[in-house]
Amino acid sequence: MSKEESIVKIRDLRLSYYTRRGVYHALNGVDLDIMRGEVLGVAGESGCGKSTLGLTIMGLLPRNAAIENGEVMVDGFDVVRPLREYFRRSKGKFKPTKNDDVLKKLHKAMMNIRGVKVSMVFQEPMTTLNPVMPVGYQIAEVLLQHNVSLLAKRRLARAKATREDMKAILGYLRGNDMASMMDYIKSRRLEGIEDQVMAYWRRRDLHDLVKEIRILSLCCDAVNPMLRPGLSYAARTNRLPSAPVLRQLVRHELVKEGYRKAAEYLGLLGMPEPEKVVKMYPHELSGGMRQRVVIATAMINNPELVILDEPTSALDVTIQAQILDLLKDLKQETKAAYMFISHDLSLLYQVSDRIAIMYAGKVVEVGPKDSVFKEPKHPYTQMLLEAVPTLEPHELKGIRGEVPDLRNPPKGCMFHPRCPFAMPICREKEPPTVDVGSGHKVACWLYAGGGEKK
């Protein structure tokens, strides 16, 4: 598939929260595409709708969230369609209790999308993880929900593989002949062993000799004969057996395999002693270790899009740098797209391919990162960049005023009360989004004709 193909298409998305204090218009006509394989950075002040946009793509909205208009297409599936249709049927009499019923149906429809096509790394790992469950189980649970067949194939492959098989596979790895290795695995019907082999081979913290010893040990791991039919069924159908006793036994075996897979993935993420970590609880881990666990939970099924909601905001500078290096490595090793939400523009410049700037629930500027940072068009983007400290001495300028109260947003362009270039039309009409060249788009009356600011 082409990198230029969109995995997410958002068109005129308008979302409001109905509260006792009034109706908050959180998203006000968002138009945005996320391309396959890219990293899209999303920036803006607190309250501009960044996290709400990410949660909308995931379909994780509270019951008082009303989709007034627009669509969110995730690989061809319109996530907000049932919520939008209910709002239209309500004809101005929106009721959160009825919207909750619609959300429950949406959650069922999203079961095959969340964790498989789209996943999310939430802002605070300590509140994301369950404090009374080992972190290994929490990672394994994602596989048990979506990828039972992988766990079953892994377990059966280790039971079937011989010492000679592993020596042959190791020979292909030494020669960097991955295609021949896969052909050999298929000919020997050892599907599932490649996942375990590559997990060790790609580890950067292990000596080559240790890698080879561990790969050679992936054989002759006998399976209880009573479990073999159930594991074979799970490998074929991606479902657990229906017979209660066999189902429980197979599930127990797959949970152990899930722990093993979790340790392998955490090892790839640079976690020290992952085999011990998977048996630990969240409170026993540092902030950086917890964040790695959350990233593993989101990415272990190789989703096509990962939404990262300020994944480094609660970490110190040293751990933040480690997580950023980790994300750069994951970008190179996987074909997933990333939506990186952050307040920190300098951080986004390091990790992103494109940048989207949000203000008061709307994308006011989007484009390639060099274009947005070196030639910002929207006055809000210009003022944000002027407030970023740099090594070169320059006067730091704050943005005057405050984000508008979205219960009663200003008419026209919402930025006009704070904009030094505001014109009469800015107070009357919402500006269209225009392309100023090379995919750089801006929603501002200064460029409404497609030309440069005068």
What is the compact description of this entry?
The protein has 454 residues and is α/β, with parallel strands linked by helices.
Order of secondary-structure elements: EEEHEEHHEHHHHHHHHHHHEHEHEEHHEE
Helix fraction bin: 40-55%
For this structure, the CATH topology of the domain at 1-112 and 337-454 is Rossmann fold
- How many β-strand stretches? 12
CATH class of the domain at 1-112 and 337-454: Alpha Beta
Mean pLDDT: 91
Distance between the termini: 41 Å
The proportion of strand residues reads 15-25%
Fold blueprint:
Elements: E1 6-19, E2 22-35, E3 39-43, H1 50-58, E4 65-74, E5 77-78, H2 81-90, H3 96-109, E6 118-121, H4 125-128, H5 135-146, H6 148-160, H7 163-174, H8 178-187, H9 193-201, H10 208-216, H11 228-237, H12 244-268, H13 274-277, H14 287-299, E7 305-309, H15 317-333, E8 337-341, H16 345-351, E9 354-359, E10 362-368, H17 369-374, H18 379-386, E11 433-435, E12 441-443
Parallel strand pairs: 3-8, 3-9, 6-7, 7-8
Antiparallel strand pairs: 1-2, 1-4, 4-5, 9-10, 10-12, 11-12
Helix pairs in contact: 2-3, 5-12, 5-14, 6-11, 6-12, 7-8, 9-10, 14-15
Model description:
The protein has a domain at 1-112 and 337-454: P-loop containing nucleotide triphosphate hydrolases (Rossmann fold, 3-Layer(aba) Sandwich). Mean pLDDT is 91; it is low at 450-454. Helix 2 runs antiparallel to helix 3, helix 6 (148-160) packs across helix 11 (228-237) and helix 7 (163-174) packs antiparallel against helix 8 (178-187). The protein is an alpha/beta fold. An 8-stranded mixed beta sheet has the order 6-7-8-3-9-10-12-11, with helices on both faces. A hairpin with a 2-residue loop joins strand 4 (65-74) and strand 5 (77-78). The two termini are 41 Å apart. It contains 18 helices and 12 strands. Helices cover 42% and strands 17% of the residues.
